[in-house]
Amino acid sequence: MKNSSYNPGLHRFAVFTACWTLFLLVAGALVTxxxxxxxxxxxxxxxxxxxxxxxxxxxxxxGHRMVATAAGxxxxxxxxxxxxxxxxxxxxxxxxSALAAVVAQGILGGITVKFFLPxxxxxxxxxxxxxxxxxxxxxxxxxxxxxxxxxxxxxYSAHPPVRERAVAAAIVIFIQLLLGAAYRHQALGILPHLxxxxxxxxxxLPAAFSSRDRAYGSASGLARCGTMLKHVLYVQLALGGxxxxxxxxxxxxxxxxxxxxxxxxxxxxxGALTLAVAVLLVLVAFRVLGPVRPEKVAASxxxxxxxxxxxx
Amino acid sequence: xKARLLFAVLAVALALSLSACGSKEQAEEKPxxxxxxxxxxxxxxAGTITGTVKLDGPAPKAQRIRMDAEPTCAKxxxxxxxxxxxxxxxxxxxGNVVVYVKDxxxxxxxxxxxxxxxxxxxxxxxxxxxxxxxxxxxxxxxxSDPTTHNVHPVPTNNKEWNKSQPxxxxxxxxxxxxxEIAIPVKCNVHPWMKSYIAVLKHPYxxxxxxxxxFEIKNLPPGDYTLVAWHGVLGTSAxxxxxxxxxxxxxxxxxFKP
Lengths: 312, 257
Description:
Helices cover 68% and strands 3% of the residues of chain A. Chain A has helices spanning 8-33, 56-85, 89-114, 119-142, 145-148, 162-184, 191-210, 222-249, 258-288; strands at residues 152-155, 289-290, 302-304. In chain A, helix 1 (8-33) packs antiparallel against helix 9 and helix 2 (56-85) runs antiparallel to helix 3. The longest helix of chain A is centred in the C-terminal third of the chain and has 31 residues, at 258-288. Chain B is globular and about 55 Å long. In chain B, the strands form 4 sheets. In chain B, strands 2, 12, 14, 15 and 16 form a 5-stranded antiparallel β-sheet that branches. A 5-stranded mixed β-sheet of chain B has the order 5-11-10-7-8, with no helix packed on it. Helices cover 13% and strands 36% of the residues of chain B.
């Protein structure tokens, strides 16, 4: 059995850490939307202490630091747990990479405070946050019972090219998240992000629909990922419209208004989820679809996992 | 091997971003060359420019600042606190406008006043909303509130800084080395708190009150260009004025909302 290394505790902890990281992304988005990034002028301490008065913008900024500290501790535990229990070398590397990412993320966060939110460092902080979240989602997937079980692998027909489309979708969503971060941190105007919002559905929806193609009907989990991606994209587009509307409607308000904060933070969080689902689709597509060998095996002819496959 | 490469790339990227930020900081910290004061203005020949800044049309309605997020701030007010972007008098005078000589002083330099201009944080708003100082003149920032503030000027031509000021903390005394009209100041703890500090090379400026009136005294005879700056409406059209010995002239600036 391929799932002999399945560890339910490790998997549950990986899922928890990924969920906590999504919470961390929400906390970070709240800091930006409330313009609280510099409410605490010092780093790594906050007002020279571990627990400053949690008032106004300090609540958001120090709250973000606390959630991030917890995420760092969880990631250390996860990386050590993986290194001790996992037989797959690639999993151990992934665990340590996630730890390196969260450390780098903490340093980037410190740089944003020390150097008064340099726009491109803030964008890098946002981008690395997305990459870190995706690495934890991948760890959660790779430690699942489903991933480690003997799955029926379907021959990849390349018609439709779901793998390539899924990879393109993940890349385009990531770029779109970067453009959104660049707008939020005033490195760029909103136009690139708006253009991206027009392009993204034309790349993502074909990936989502082709994963539900009849050719891959027996590929476990693939169609579900495609459906999830489609739905989360619809929600994200609606939230993007709402965030833009709320921003325009409250642009003369003396402070960030709750309606703008709500829609913008929701848009940021669902953006991260959209990327995570696209990454899931990529991973599942490479897991349950076999390599293209049309000269030997006809498309959609099932075979068993383990004959050919990735290191994970 | 790949992991090592990843670590190396990450370390180099971090070092580069740190060094880039550091070099910017060092460049900003470089002090401006000290100015040597030229001959003092002769009061026997100095003239005056007076006038009014007016708003041509109804001012946008002031918006209520909601301080519910911090009860300490809300408790300091018995009446609703409104935005101060448009402070308009009965006769259409516009307040919080910096009127200053933009051109006409040549290479003349001026002593830096030693007395500070005070910016108070009182009731979780900046009082006054706009101040103007000379280059290197001290700005003294007071926290009269029972809550913590951070004082964060966001200049484009001066060094940026961000300092916390708990209740009853020592006053912050800072100055700005370069002319800049005007530097936004904000408190990230209380995002509604906004103020402006105009920094000028000379003493020929005035911040208008609610009546929009200004008076710029002790000007040596000459041809001057004056402008008015408002936090929301920006910079006005230039006005040319010629001042003869002991002459006083009146001008008017008009902003459209």
